[in-house]
Amino acid sequence: MARCSPAKPFCATASAPHLSPRRLQLAAKATTTRTTPSTAAGTVRLPALNKPTKPPPPPLLSRPKLPVPATAPTAGREDSSKKPPPEVGASPPSSSGAGDVLRLMDALGIPPDEDVYISLLRDCGGAAEVATVHAHIAGRSASGGLPSPLANRVLLSYAACGDIGSARRVFDGMAAKNGMAWATMASAYSDRGFHHDTMRLFAHMCGEARDLAGDCFAHAVVAVLRSCARVGELRFSEQVQALVIKKGRVSGDIGSSLVQLYCESGGRHCSARRVLVMMMQHPCQEAVPEAAWTSLITACHRGGLLNEATDVFRDMVSAGVPRSSFSLSSILAVFAESDNPGCYGQQVHVDAMKRGVDTSQFVGSGLVHMYAKQGQLTDAAKAFEAISGKPDAVCWNAMAMAYARGGRYREATRVMYQMKAAGICPSELLRNEVRLACFR
Predict the structure, then answer these.
(1) Beta carbons of 430 and 400 less than 8 angstroms apart
(2) Residues 161-182: pLDDT tens digits?
(3) What is the DSSP string of 423-435?
(4) What does the alpha-carbon distance between residue 182 and residue 176 come to, in Å, rounded to a whole number?
(5) Strands, DSSP E only, in 85-150?
(6) pLDDT tens profile 366-378
(7) Helices 179-191 and 164-172 meet at what angle, rounded to 10?
(8) pLDDT tens digits, residue range 379-435?
(9) Contact, 276 vs 269, CB < 8 A?
(10) With contact defined as beta carbons under 8 Å apart, do 299 and 269 qualify?
């Protein structure tokens, strides 16, 4: 017990702990900071930490400028596709794919052959690329003229790009024009709406060309007949028909173009029927295209000759011509307006089911319209439900009209709301029909 020290009272103050010199220095600094005067708001503002500055970004390299072909501006025209091709010489620099290939081959010392040029022309996407390849071909040509296959390909490429002026210059520069060149130029004029130029070119072809035969002649005749139909030039078309009959080519696409020409002229159904008979009696025994039959059926329907349209369709079936949705929908429109359709409409419906086209929108809307005209609303509803995919506005209107004109206003209103749910706005005529059906 002698070794234990006496206990200290609770009120006695403890002695200060022993601190190292470093701790004493830090405590003195903290005390100094607390005793500094405060700011106006009564708080101590600590010094802000300065963020290290970011290094400057590396300088961007300037984008290299692509070479632009130097072309002389034409007075009064801003369309670059109408400019003539560059003069004979080295090919101008171009940023196109064809120009890059040609420059690479020139740098490597590889002369392009005819197949390379034809492949590049086939892949050209614009008149500028065609002009680049054209200039390169002309620069390597010894005599300055283009070989016949390359000239035809250049002409076709210009025509496909819509540069009719450059195509005409290539055509005029050809020493010997074959049937391919005449057909390409005539088709280019007709497709771009230069119908009178097409007729003048065809007359020029008949006076100069000696080998008017083959598919090229057929393409030229189809182009000029299309232009005659667009401008209503019947006298010139009759001369073309006489030339075709003389050469014995009233068949295929030429015969179909003649039938379509007379059908669009108005009141020339007899002429179209005669051409159709000539096509059926042609010695080559080539089947008459479906387009010719459909054109004549549609023309008779528009002229009110419903019985004649039915006879044409009967002859079409007897000839063994395969029917598609276009011809079937055309004859269904005839049966819908016929007074005595009989069982023809149902036979066409069965034929469409056999061929698998009864679910198409064209045939489906025609069936709905035909059954609605006959008062068979149940069959019309079945034909509408059989339409595959999303019905278009024609199908919806046909079904709603069928219910409205049949006096079933509840079903007509339901179909109209279904149209709105499908994202199709009903027409004003359909709304009026449904309103009239509600008040009957």
Answers:
(1) yes
(2) 889 999 999 999 888 888 889 9
(3) T-PPPHHHHHHHH
(4) 11
(5) none
(6) 998 888 888 888 8
(7) 160
(8) 888 988 888 878 888 888 888 888 888 888 888 888 888 888 888 888 888 888 777
(9) no
(10) yes
DSSP reduced 3-state for 439: helix
CA distance 164 to 162: 6
Give the list of residues 6+ apart from residue 93 with CB closer than 8 angstroms, or none. 67, 68, 69, 99, 103
> Could you give the CA distance from residue 366 to residue 380 in angstroms, rounded to a whole number?
10
Q: Which residue has the tokens 């500028």?
A: 128
Q: Give CA–CA dist 113/175, Å, rounded.
A: 21
- Out of 36-45, 56-65, 124-133, 228-237, least confident range: 36-45
Q: Which residues of 161-193 are buried (b: 16+ CB within 10 A; e: fewer)?
A: bbbbebbbebbeebeebebbbbbbbbbbbbbee
Q: Backbone dihedral region of 51: left (phi > 0), alpha (psi from -120 to 50 degrees) or beta?
A: beta
| Contacts (Cβ under 8 Å, ≥6 apart) of 142 | none
Distance CA 20, CA 405 (A): 109
How much of the chain exceeds pLDDT 90, in percent? 19
Burial of 234 (0-12, 13-18, 19+ CB in 10 A): middle
- Specify whether the CB–CB gap between 424 and 396 falls below 8 A: yes
Residue 65 vs residue 89, higher pLDDT: 65
Return the amino acid letter for 268: R
Q: What is the DSSP secondary-structure string of 237-261?
A: HHHHHHHHHHHT--SHHHHHHHHHH
| CA distances from residue 56 to 49, 51, 61 in whole angstroms, order as listed | 21, 15, 15
Task: Give the number of other CB atoms < 10 A from CB of residue 118.
Answer: 17
CA 31, 35, 36, 40 torsion: positive or negative?
Answer: positive
**Interior/surface letters 299-330, b for 16+ CB within 10 angstroms, e for the rest:** bbbeeebbebbbebbebbeeeebebbbbbbbb
Q: Of 237, 306, 309, whose CA–CA distance to 273 is shortest?
A: 309
DSSP assignment letter at 4: S
Question: Helix or strand or coil: residue 10?
Answer: coil
The torsion angle over the Cα atoms of residues 311, 312, 315 and 316, rounded to 10 degrees, is -140
Question: Whole-angstrom Cα distance, residue 142 to residue 281?
Answer: 52
Q: Is the CA virtual torsion 154, 155, 157, 161 positive or negative?
A: positive
Q: Which residues contact 283 (CB under 8 A, 6 or more apart)?
A: 248
The C-alpha atoms of residue 248 and residue 284 are separated, in whole angstroms, by 10
